[in-house]
Amino acid sequence: MSPNLFLVVLLGISALAYRQGKKKAFASVTEKSQRLHSLPNYYGVLTALWCFIPAILIFLLWQLFSDFILTGIAMQDVFANTPHLSPAEQNLLINDMRNMVAGVVSRVDANPLVEQAVERYLNIRVISHMALGVIMLIAALIPGCWIYTRIKPEFRARNHVEQIVEILLILCSTVAILTTVGIVLSVLFESIRFFQQVPLWDFLFGLKWSPQMAIRADQAGSSGSFGAVPVFAGTFMISGIALAVAVPIGLMSAIYLSEYAGKKLRAVVKPLLEILAGVPTVVYGFFAALVVAPLIRDMGLTMGMSVSSESALAAGLVMGIMIIPFVSSLSDDVINAVPQSLRDGSYGLGATKSETIKNVIIPAALPGIVGSILLAASRAIGETMIVVMAAGLSANLTANPLEAVTTVTVQIVTLLVGDQEFDSPKTLAAFALGLLLFVTTLMLNVVALYVVRKYREEYE
Amino acid sequence: MKTENTSTMQVVNSGLAKRYAKEKRFRMLGIGAVVISLLFLVILFSSIVGNGYTAFRQSVIVLDIHFDKQILDVSNLRSANYAKLVKDAMSGLFPDVTGRSDKRMLHRLVSSGAAFQLQKMIIKDPSLIGRTVEVRVPADDEVDMFIKGYIPRNVPESERRISDQQMAWIDRLVDSDRLERRFNTTFFTAGDSREPELSGIKGAVTGSFFTLLVTLVLSFPIGVAAAVYLEEFAPVNRWTDFVEVNINNLAAVPSIVFGLLGLAVFLNFFGFPRSAPLVGGMVLTLMTLPTIIIASRASLKSVPPSIREAALGIGASKLQTITHHVLPLAMPGMMTGTIIGMAQALGETAPLLMIGMVAFIVDIPGGITDPATVLPVQIYLWADSPERAFVERTSAAIMILLAFLILMNGTAVLLRRKFERRW
Fold it and tell me: Which of A338, B15, B131, B301 shows the greatest Cβ crowding within 10 Å of its Cβ?
């Protein structure tokens, strides 16, 4: 029996419970003077909820953990028979078994031990499915019957239902917190394991990044080195180029659109600029690699400079285009929020429009503008696809924007895409980089929000 | 001040020309900035369209295939030598080609997919055996590129992928109307392939569909419920403050970090299948939730309190007020926010790379647990491929992706226009 069938059955039981609950509510009113506390529907809904929620909880828990538990039981014998296996080899066997269970890999000429485990896994899976069905049935029927017996005219069904709904709403609102906790924990755990193998100091201040671990110990560069400085230098260089493109263009566009442009022009140009923010980053990456990078290289060649085909300049330039709307639309909002009276005052003193903008409006809007630039910077640092497709792979500590540099996000992607063993420092390094990336962008965001809030002038 | 009797007006007037010039310059800077940004937009779109529009037409070679009874063994139709049928037909067109290596070069003009096409035809209709039929088979991608003008004729032979001899054959095929360009249906009906002329976006589009379906099913109810709680029920205290700060921060966390979360929690901890739209959708749900929650809250806020007070005044409970009156009024705004969130999710690539949706998958996924890839990841994969023909296919896939995004965002704008209410 497939577990999905249980869901259908459960829905059927719940529907039945709804009908029965409603029926009983009607039936419970015997005398004319008596009235139901709630609308009859609520009695039905309450019965149905009491059936559905416990059973579905059990179902979800089983979905989450069954594979984990079943694998553990199935592999028990295998590991007991071969005690000398390293954790990596154990993982390999587990993966073999999973693939065979899923039918991805054919079971012909497999390791007999794994074969055994697969048999075992399939056997206990059948048993566990049956157990799940029985437990779900019990979990649906007992609470359902219990609440059914309590249905009386004076029973406050609506209040109960509303309470349950409110709890559900609260649970939904905590998903955001769970996500944050999940991010922090998952990144932190792996990072701690990484820092057990590579000292924190070496990671933060090391000047050499070459995460390739040699297979044999006597090979050259066998240890791999994990100094994050060149990676971060590359990130900041590309983000810096991006900001150097986006801030002047974005800010001047915002100023022009909010102060000079007519209503009609604004209504056309603003959405057009926002298209730039809606274009998927993979498209920018393709554009950078296909159009911009060769262009810059050819221009460099005609000027007699050697330009890498994965130059930081190309990636930065395209990233700058991408974040123009982040700067412009946020700045536009804060410039519009500057009250007209300040402008009128300035004009009244005889200032020209540009003088008003430079001396009155920008100082008044400065916190918001700084906030928008910081947010754009955090966006640039965390941007992945453009740099994956247009920036280099090898870490390179340089200040020359014409050379290829690598970034944090590129390293995370190259370290984690494809087959990986989960214990090597190479894989764990990606999580350490992720932690640093998360912390950096989080700080930028917090500072940005703080600046905007703290220094916002209130004109009321 | 030069002399005692210079009046203020004179001082002002003397500087006026300079100040006006400055004003003009500043204004030009502003115009320049807007023009440059729009120019970038135009260059971006025109380079994509310019590179990609040719992918919608594909070169095919018209061959008279003789389904030879000797080659096609009725008992084993699947493994018959269909490639030989194609080769024979090609040799029939060029009887003068005799040398072994020459023949090999000649046969390379036809895509390796031609044999599969014939196989499919025969299995569908075995009565074709023994007859000669005119069949249109895809040309090799290099031939296609040559026909489309991407491989120039005037470069030395060693620097192009098509030899002089092949060029002559192609010219003869064109002259005898054996080589035509038709609408590229393969591009819309096939999955990924190593051969550009056989590759299509259907697998990726289906994968995107399943992923977005999971995202929508999870993120819309959760997002709306969270917004309702925060806006209507939540007491003002530290906890709700904390939740709010959290949501705002999540909106600015780099997308790749969500990928790390998916890898560590969904794949490694819970053991969900790799490369599956289910996990992709869950990761994208976490990413789009902040967008949906923020939009839904704004939309709930815009429903005037008088509506709530009226409902409460005639005896509705709080939940009844919300479900019967506030939510229906706020729904258009919530839908707009959801569509925009979905559009973001559709264009997202980086987190999906982390959870293995970057594999080379030929089959078209049939459900949310099948291995799949999505449209942006397909674009990334093709952009990495060395064949020239993949450049136009990448651009064409981007055009499809952008078309979907424009459609979604356009719907959101229309929805907002149609249902926007000023109270």
Answer: A338
B254, A409: Cβ pair inside 8 Å?
Answer: yes
Q: Which long-range contacts (CB under 8 A, 24 or more apart) does A105-114 make?
A: A113/A77, A113/A78, A113/A81, A113/A82, A114/A78
The pLDDT value recorded for residue B1 is 47
Are A337 and A300 within 8 A, CB to CB? no
- For residues B375 and B91, the model is more confident at B375
A12, A51, A134, A388, B74 from A9: Cα distances, Å: 5, 12, 12, 48, 48
The residue of chain A nearest to residue B379, with distances taken between CA atoms, is A282
| C-alpha torsion angle, residues B81, B82, B88, B91 (rounded to 10) | -120
State residue A247 phi and psi, 5-degree precision.
-65, -55
Instruction: Please state at what angle helix B277-301 crosses helix B202-228, rounded to 10 degrees.
Output: 40
What proportion of chain B, given as a percentage, has pLDDT over 90? 44
What is the predicted ipTM? Answer: 0.90
Element (H, E) at B339: helix B327-347
Query: Does an H or E element contain B408, and which?
Result: helix B388-419
Q: Spell out the CATH class of B202-419.
A: mainly alpha
**B13 and chain A in contact, CB less than 8 A:** no
- Tell me the C-alpha to C-alpha distance, in Å, between residue B97 and each of B92, B100, B107, B356: 10, 9, 11, 47
For residue B412, what are the β-bridge partners?
Answer: none
- Render B292-332 in DSSP notation, one character per residue: HHHHHHHHHHTS-HHHHHHHHHTT--HHHHIIIIIHHHHHH
Minimum Cα–Cα distance from A65: chain B residue: B270
Please provide the DSSP assignment of A90-146 as one string: HHHHHHHHHHHHHTSS--TT--HHHHHHHHHHHHHHHHHHHHHHHHHHHHHHHHHHH
By the 8 A CB rule, do A365 and A451 touch? no
What is the rounded CA–CA span in Å between residue B327 and residue B334? Answer: 9
Pair A421, A91: CB distance under 8 Å? yes
Q: pLDDT tens for residues B305-352?
A: 999 999 999 999 999 999 999 999 999 999 999 999 999 999 999 999
Tell me the C-alpha distance between A112 and A208, whole Å.
Answer: 45
- pLDDT tens per residue across span A218-236: 555 545 678 888 899 999 9
CB of A452 closer than 8 Å to CB of A215: no
Residue appearing with tokens 């953990």: A65
- List the 417-436 stretch of A: residues with Cβ below 8 A of B: 417, 422, 430-431, 434
- Which residue segments constitute the domains of chain A, with CATH numbers given? 3-173 (no CATH), 225-454 (1.10.3720.10)
Share of chain A above pLDDT 90, in %: 40
| Residue that is written with structure tokens 């992918």 in the block | B55
Q: Could you read off the pLDDT of B208-251 as tens digits, one per residue? A: 999 999 999 999 999 999 999 999 998 888 888 888 888 988 88
pLDDT at B51 exceeding the cut of 60:
yes
Do residues A284 and A384 make contact, with C-beta atoms less than 8 angstroms apart?
A: no
Do residues B103 and B91 touch, judged by C-beta distance below 8 A? Answer: yes
User: What is the reported pLDDT for B27?
Assistant: 94
Sole residue written with tokens 């402008």: A343
Q: In this predicted structure, what is the pLDDT of residue A422? A: 59
Of A209-223, A248-262, A297-311, B143-157, which gets the smallest average pLDDT?
A209-223
Q: Is residue B136 helix, strand or coil?
A: strand
